[in-house]
Amino acid sequence: MKEKSFFSILSNLPRIIFMRETRGIALVVIKQLGFINIIKILFKTVYKTGPIKSIKSILTFKLDDLVANYFASMWEILGDREAIITGEKRITYKELTDRVLRLANGLQALDLKPKDRVAELLYNGNEFFETLFAGSLIGCPMPFLNWHLKGDELAGAINRAAPKLLIFDEDFYNEVFAIKNKLATVKHYVMVGANHRNDIILFEDLLSKSPNTMPKISITFALNPYSGGTTGAPKNVNYFDGFGYLVSSTSEKPDVSLKEYVMLLAKQFSFVYWLGAHKIKDKESANIRLLMPSPVYHAASIIGWIPLVFFGATGIAMKNFNDEEFLRLIEQEKISWIFVVPTIIERLLHLPDNVKNKYDLSSMKALICGSAPASPELKAAANNFFKARGCKNNILSEFYGSSETAVVTVLLPEDYEKNPKTLASVGKARGGHLGIYNKKEAKWCAPNEQGHIFDRTVMTESLKYSGAPEKTKSVFEHVDGVRWFDDGLIGYMDEGGYVYLTGRVKEMIICGGVNVYPNEIERIINNHHEVADVAVVRAPDADLGECVAAIVQPKKDSNITKEEIIAHCKKNGLHGFKLPKIVEIAEELPRHIDGKLIKRELEDKFWKGMERRG
After folding, report:
1. What is the rounded distance in angstroms from the CA atom of residue 326 to the CA atom of residue 367?
2. Cα 458 from Cα 264, distance rounded (Å)
3. Helix or strand or coil: residue 416?
4. DSSP state, residue 319
5. Residue 180 and residue 166: Cα distance in Å, rounded?
6. How far apart (Å, rounded) are the C-alpha atoms in residues 111 and 118?
7. Any idea what the Cα angle at residue 372 is, between residues 370 and 374, rounded to 5°?
8. Of 8, 125, 134, 385, whose CB neighbour count within 10 A is largest?
9. How far apart (Å, rounded) are the C-alpha atoms in residues 442 and 347?
10. Contact 573, 539 (CB under 8 A)
11. pTM for this prediction
12. Distance of alpha carbon 76 from alpha carbon 80, whole angstroms
């Protein structure tokens, strides 16, 4: 890849401008910020940077100061518009600007340099975003730590990212200091809370003692999430390189040409357009009002709060999810945009009618589902739920992506309204490129033929797992000289380009030499009216090698039996190797907060003392 420069970008500009994705992003910016505000922001950016320095920055393509001043100008122009709401705390963009600048200066006073990392262990709230923005201004990526981790798991996650500073909520004090001696790289501990502790810097004290002037700028987009960890230890992923290279002096080059990088970048950010952000605007606040019910540290949740980062949205944070509070906030705050995992939809559907029907949900325009499989029945039920409470149209969209790829496919209401069959899909490859590959025969699959899901996005072309170069190499395959990311999934693509996920390679059950994938079996069992949740895993079998085991969580007050579950499976077309040989009833199935089943916990008990494939 040749060096980025004004002239190299200029030579590729015609191709980029004529992309539908680029035009779509422009429509979103205009809709959300308003044409007059955009002019004001640009003039203010040039004024802050200085006219001559602005021209020089563009010609040399060293854009750090321009980008920093653009965001500061946008926040100042938005002024009294609410930025982040957490409980009773309502922070405006004017207040956000002051707090971000103070935090950035405070971090630099603690000797943080560009590329040093500032890890966070925080609930959903303003402090998470203030740290993200401050780190972005001074070139410090922010590892998104999972606050459900404890002990050695938490220490391992922190050490893989090697942060110099850790910002955490006081609720996690005991967890952090139980592992403090194991954290080799952490030099400073900053705590959100009011209780003074030894060797701890209080977050608000750091802000109050720091100036609200522009810090020494080194731009990066500080996004630094982890993989989900459902099949092993969570891996730290470098979004700051993939998303930030175009405007950052510290981000590393991707492994593609500049032209392809910019085109992939436009494809990735176009998800806001595909999801309808160019059509959503609250009548009073003149922006998107988004709700954050899932932990914002999870990579999938970024799709839910990115309008807050780039387009002046108002974000309402839920510290912990509560199903009725979720509905109440939609009505009270006029929410229009939400990312949810399928588990949230399930919980809403199971609410008593007297609770469901209390709330007006007509403000909702985009319900974005992802992170775990959602059956077509669940998607249809979600649309019906919201339409019965005020929404005029179908609002559910779905996306497929992983922590490594970011957004790959998007399924839109217009897709399944035109062709109801596509409701079972995860949509088309709108955020990058996707192919279905037959590894055995070393060729691309024909339409409707199952194979391995291979992806290419702006993130995969920059992907590096922190501290694990060999693991990074292992997830790529080369086909016809092009590098593809192997996401470990099996699926197929129909003639219209819609992608259907069949299962995960590591979850595949090889039963008498036949490959069986859990998704279909889980979907059928889940459709039983007395089943709340189900996990299908592999179990050892003396004759077949492996067999299908189904662990079922019944709904409250249900007395469903194993025999009834088997009969339901047969009635709905499951026979032979697909028919569960083992059925167990469980009070509750283990799920990550992001909605993914923790299948290894369920599978382990079947394989005690036995060697397991994979």
Report:
1. 13
2. 5
3. helix
4. S
5. 11
6. 12
7. 80
8. 134
9. 43
10. no
11. 0.90
12. 9
Q: Which residue has the tokens 């230890």?
A: 233
Taking residues 518-540, what's their average pLDDT? Answer: 92
Question: Buried (b) or exposed (e) across 232-245, using 16+ Cβ within 10 A?
Answer: eebbbbbbbbbbbb
Q: Are 114 and 84 in contact (CB under 8 A)?
A: no
Antiparallel, parallel or unpaired: β 188-192 and 165-169:
parallel
- Beta strands (DSSP E) in 144-210 are 165-169, 188-192, 201-202
Compute the distance between CA of residue 565 and CA of residue 397 in angstroms, rounded to an integer. 31
Q: Percent of the chain, pLDDT > 70?
A: 98
Answer for the pair 463, 415: CB distance below 8 angstroms, yes or no. no
Using only the alpha carbons of the chain, give its radius of gyration.
24
What single string gives the DSSP state of each residue in 277-303?
A: TTT---TTT-S-EEEE-S-TTSGGGHH
The token pair that represents 327 in the structure block: 């509905």
CB 84 within 8 A of CB 192: no
List Cβ<8 Å contacts ≥24 apart for 465-470.
Answer: 465/235, 465/236, 465/237, 466/160, 466/161, 466/162, 466/235, 466/236, 466/237, 466/238, 467/160, 467/162, 467/236, 468/160, 468/235
3-state DSSP call for residue 382?
helix
Count other C-beta atoms under 10 Å from residue 51's C-beta.
9
Vertex 381 angle, CA 497 and 354, to 5° = 160
Tokens 């900053």, residue located: 190
First to last CA, the chain: 37
Q: List, for residues 145-171, the tens digit of each pLDDT value.
A: 999 899 999 999 999 999 999 999 999
Q: In the predicted model, is pLDDT for residue 595 greater than 80?
A: no
Q: Are strands 406-411 and 396-402 parallel, antiparallel or unpaired?
A: antiparallel
| Token representation of residue 154 | 């938490």
Q: Are 260 and 10 in contact (CB under 8 A)?
A: no
Token duo for residue 513: 């030499």
- Select from 427, 144, 162 the least CA-distant residue to 298: 144
